[in-house]
Amino acid sequence: MEVGVAYLAGRALAPGASYLAVFRFAGTGAFYAHAIARAIDSIWMGRAWSTTLKNLFDGLVYALLTAGTFRRALAPVRSRFHAIANLIGSMFSSL
Fold it and tell me: Domain limits of the chain?
């Protein structure tokens, strides 16, 4: 599911998008994928609604974790290279 959310977020959001925009977009997509799909089981397959509510809560937790992860993954390439360069520089400066 996260691969699909990653694809959609990568296509819809520009590199360097604000934290809130990435978090909102990826979180909403992940919530739909993890949680909303479970409501269909109660509607059409007769699963207990108490189970569906538990699944909705689990889906919310997964969506929040996914959204936080995607913000880091969609960070601007320039800043990632800058961070890697700083890391390599700090490793060699201690020699």
Answer: 2-7+18-93
Q: Which of 7-11, 18-22, 61-65 has the highest mean pLDDT?
A: 61-65
Return d(Cα 73, Cα 6) in angstroms, integer.
9
- Provide the H-helix boundaries in the chain: 2-12, 19-31, 37-44, 49-73, 77-93
Report whether 34 contacts 28 (CB < 8 A).
Answer: no
What does the block give as tokens for 37? 């799909």
**50-83 pLDDT per residue, tens:** 999 999 999 999 999 888 887 666 655 445 555 6
**Which residue, chain included where needed, has tokens 């360069």?**
85
CA distance 57 to 29: 15
Residue 72, Cβ neighbours under 10 Å: how many?
10
User: Using CA atoms, how far apart are residues 17 and 37, in angstroms rounded to an integer?
Assistant: 28
